[in-house]
Design a protein that fits this description.
Rossmann fold, about 45% helix, 6 helices, single chain, about 20% strand, alpha/beta
Length: about 120
Amino acid sequence: MQIGFVGLGKMGGNMVKRLLAGGHAVVVSDRSADAVAASAREGAAGASDLADLVRRMAPPRTAWVMVPSGAPTQGVIDDRHRVFGYPGLYVIDGAAVSANPGVNPSLTITALAEYAMSKIQRKS
């Protein structure tokens, strides 16, 4: 199985290690080039940005977004025009729950769902 992984912090980086140890092909992206390089040394394919991550994957594509909720997740959603326009791309939003009571992590999932539905409705 091939999977894309966005976010290589403590949780994401360890999840990538486990996926690689399980024999999965992983394409990784992170704001930190050092984090991408570290995962590449472990056997992942490094991507320079989100669009590159998607281009490096064979369809059907699955990308796991594992970044903190709030601004980091919103940044990924805002970049969706470069990523989610690919047919057959499935996105798993693994955003960590924010300690900030003003941030509703379900809003990120809602934004992704609304975008996906708009794409489906345009095709029908």
